[in-house]
Amino acid sequence: MRIRIFGSPDQLAHALARSIAGRVAANAGLVLGLPTGDTPVPLYRELVALYRARRIDFSQTTTFNLDEFDGLGAGDSCSYRAFMQRHLFDHVNVPSRQIQFLDGRAADRAAECERYERAIQRRGGIDLQVLGLGANGHVGFNEPAVALTAATHRTRLTPATRRANARWFGNQVSEVPRHALSMGIATILHSRHIVLLATGARKAGCVARMINGPITTRLPASLLHVHPAVEVWIDRAAAVNLSRG
Ligand code: GLP
Q1: Nearest-CA neighbor of 229 among 189, 170, 171, 201?
Q2: Is 173 within 8 Å of 210 (Cβ atoms)?
Q3: Among 3.80.30.20, 2.60.40.10, 3.40.50.1360, 2.60.110.10, what is the CATH number of 2-240?
Q4: Which atom belonging to ligand 1 lies closest to the Cα atom of 67?
Q5: Which residue lies with its CA nearest to atom 10 of ligand 1?
Q6: 34/230 Cα distance (integer angstroms)
Q7: Considering only CA atoms, which residue is closest to atom 7 of ligand 1?
Q8: Which residue is closest in CA terms to ligand 1's atom 6?
Q9: Would the CA dihedral through 142, 168, 170, 9 be positive or negative?
Q10: How far apart are the C-alpha atoms of 17 and 228, rounded to whole Å?
Q11: Is the pTM of this model over 0.85?
Q12: Of 39, 162, 178, 195, which is best to mutate to test ligand 1, by the most ligand atoms within 8 angstroms of its C-beta?
């Protein structure tokens, strides 16, 4: 795992947006995996700024988002799809047919998960997967468990994750869906490159456990150690528990 520590979340976002612009310039047909959450918001702001400055062109780019709440679709303002529209897709030129999303309202959720796996494969796999980090160590919605599901699947959310997501639902935990659809841990690990983002003191404990190991399904992000091209981009606040020297 290559670790990069930045002075602030904005500095991290500034650098990552430029790194992504470089990748898109080198490979216009880049397939990008994207997360939701507060952490990537500065990154999306920077990408929109680069697009407005004509320094990035997403016209050939395909995106796959990591996850979606079960029962929510593009029309629901609390859906991750709506979040992505607000923060990125409404402001840049990714053609809508190249924006791939799990449909939390699909009549057959299992078939929807299989469709997503096939869609990723048809596009030749994910070139760069950007990840956030749940405070309990989840990636996407792969929650800590005795065993993890490999492929895209419907999953039950832990009470901690429902509480953490209540902010998107007027702070009403009872409104947060009990299930979600998510890329599986193998779906994520098949990406060619992975950049995991974590910022703020709230993530410091989890970041240290992820980096120091052990590798365990009880901390799904620790599985990233087995991937040959993972970078962990964090700010100083999230790095405070890492041993120095
Ligand atoms: C949700 C998402 C994750 C995300 C996590 C962290 O649970 N499913 O993909 O990484 O939140 O969110 P935040 O960046 O707001 O801390």
Answers
A1: 189
A2: no
A3: 3.40.50.1360
A4: 8
A5: 132
A6: 15
A7: 134
A8: 134
A9: positive
A10: 22
A11: yes
A12: 39
Predicted pLDDT of residue 244: 61
Q: How far is the CA of 221 from the centre of ligand 1 (A)?
A: 12
Active site residues: 67, 136, 138, 143
Question: Given the CA of residue 198, which atom of ligand 1 is nearest to it?
Answer: 14
CB distance 40 to 83 below 8 Å: no
pLDDT at 243: 76
pLDDT, one tens digit per residue, over 170-229 is 999 999 999 999 999 999 999 999 999 999 999 999 999 999 999 999 999 999 999 999
Q: Which of 129, 131, 133 to mutate to test the pocket of ligand 1 (most atoms within 8 A of CB)?
A: 133
162 alpha carbon – ligand 1 mean position (Å): 11
Residues enclosing ligand 1, CB less than 6 A?
35-39, 66-67, 132-134, 140-141, 161, 165
- Please state, rounded to an integer, the average pLDDT across all residues of the chain: 97
Q: Could you report the per-residue pLDDT of 26-59, keeping only the tens digit for each?
A: 999 999 999 999 999 999 999 999 999 999 999 9
Mean pLDDT along residues 238-244:
88
Q: Minimal CA–CA distance to 239: which of 2, 1, 5, 58?
A: 5
Q: What is the tens place of the pLDDT at every residue in 70-108?
A: 999 999 999 999 999 999 999 999 999 999 999 999 999
So where are the chain's domains? Answer: 2-240
